[in-house]
Amino acid sequence: MALVSYVLNGKEKESRVGQEIAGKIKQIASELGYQPNHLAKSLRSGKTHTIGLIIADISNPFFANIARVVEDEAKRHGYTVIIGSSDENAEKSRDLLNVLINRQVDGFIIVSAEDSQEQVQYLKDKKIPFVLLDRYFPAIQTDFVSTNHYKAAYNAGVHLVKNGYKRIGMIAYDSQLFHMQERIRGYVEALTDNHIPFQEHWLKRVRISAIEQGVKAAIDEMMASEQPVDALIFATYSLAINGLKYINELRLNVPGDLAIVSFGQAEAFDLYYCPITYLKQPIGLLGQTAVELLVKKLKEPQAEPSQILMEAELIIRASSKTKSLVNN
Amino acid sequence: MALVSYVLNGKEKESRVGQEIAGKIKQIASELGYQPNHLAKSLRSGKTHTIGLIIADISNPFFANIARVVEDEAKRHGYTVIIGSSDENAEKSRDLLNVLINRQVDGFIIVSAEDSQEQVQYLKDKKIPFVLLDRYFPAIQTDFVSTNHYKAAYNAGVHLVKNGYKRIGMIAYDSQLFHMQERIRGYVEALTDNHIPFQEHWLKRVRISAIEQGVKAAIDEMMASEQPVDALIFATYSLAINGLKYINELRLNVPGDLAIVSFGQAEAFDLYYCPITYLKQPIGLLGQTAVELLVKKLKEPQAEPSQILMEAELIIRASSKTKSLVNN
Q1: Is the Cβ pair B36, A34 closer than 8 Å?
Q2: For residue range A20-64, what is the model confidence (pLDDT) as tens digits?
Q3: Measured between CB atoms, which of B35, B85, B266 is closest to A37?
Q4: Domains of chain B (ranges, CATH numbers)
Q5: Inter-residue contact B131 to B290 (CB < 8 Å)
Q6: Residues in domain HTH lacI-type (chains A, B) (predicted)?
Q7: A165 min Cα distance to partner chain B (Å)
Q8: Residues A143/A309, Cβ–Cβ less than 8 Å
């Protein structure tokens, strides 16, 4: 049947199959409203030069900025980026993957949502090229580039201990995602490694679907105890923004009443009355590397997965000032 | 040939054309690697149920939040949204439109980039359904939903005059886009209508490709004059963020040295030491209405364009406090 295929793709002299038969096949195909399957075609020709980028939440400036970097880098490589936002929702993530697979993207860069592990396994099984960005599943061998979330949280905890804080809390998401587990693990180990016995009520887990109320309740509980926390690590940008607004409402002084370190980064941290110490993830390098890994994957689908962890940098500012200096 | 088409789409009993012929046609189609043309199919069935959203800059929280609303609203209507960011660049916008047209979206919601008027005209000529969001071209009859940018800027200017400010500046983009012209016009008319003769050096236009340096130079010039401005309107969020950082660097007090009103909205304005007065655009309503107009357009392609202007709300906070109170 290869000969017939040639006819419709116009790659062979029609004489090889006979003009009459060729004409008939073309007529049938045309009358059926059929045209070459672009997916099959692009699999043969190599590329549609389009990348699908699935991010977890477009309204989070960390992901919005990552998207901007991915686009710039993809353009340098000759790719156009189509973006979908899963809003941290596995069902929406599945819809988007389906839509973009049907739209014949060459491959994906994905910031995975909660409970989307099966989708990643599916892509892997179907040999659809992808790179995970920022979040990955240790149980699945995939290409990924991510911040070392454990180390980042560990450094934040050690920094607060060294600056004299003794009751250090963390507000995190109630999530099974590995990066969140790693942030929690890093925080807990920073305390125990530095002779501060971790106390369960210092760690609050907030549901992602009810951040505002969750953060308020968490701070209320932490501050109401006889020995309120004197420092707080926010495990994400959204937790921090909600937390800082509530801390202002409560008229708590930062860092006098409560020192702050946060994940995420945003103009809001710079413009706060007491600039916020934060873990600066290498957004530019993360985005660039994700594109490079995907481009490499598209060229060499059989290559071993590349798995890259990058370090976050702790940007130390007034919100976590040495405790003895604050009280002066 | 309609009968044969039915066979492959599985909509007709095979007996009508004879099982043998039906089987043969299917076999040929399959061996050719052909599948139904989704575009042709969707043209007949109506929809692919996918919307392309082109935003001007994904890293601007105003657009990121609009994207989030459009997605939620589209999902309610049974549509999936694919996003592209033009980064305020007409060439990138054209690439994205092409990619998404080839990806067979049903229609577009577009926040237009500079110099993209021809693209809008092209979509209109080709009868590709679209709705313009936030920015529109008065010379082209299209569906659009936008803030009344003129009125918003006018209200900001009047508010500052009423609160006792006499030398009111504006930093805007050096852009031909209509919404920017309207913001400038509103600012100028607010002054002249209130007996403050507008002075050319109060209005600075910053190139979008060099915001940071442009804003610094603008503020330097405005403050260096013998009669420095005592209030400043930022015409966009990015201008404001860069401006506020520089105002902090210069250790200017807000509003004592300089009152501030800004377009755009973001957590940064809430968390600034002196909360920023801003023009709150109805993001939720803008996004919802854009989706509704597009859905309507898809159902009735021949209907007259809907053109909707919405009012921004001036959220008054400490950064534009009555001047006599500031000096006490």
Answers
A1: yes
A2: 665 665 566 555 444 444 444 444 455 789 999 999 988 888 999
A3: B35
A4: 2-36 (no CATH), 48-147+282-310 (3.40.50.2300), 149-281+314-327 (3.40.50.2300)
A5: yes
A6: 1-45
A7: 24
A8: no
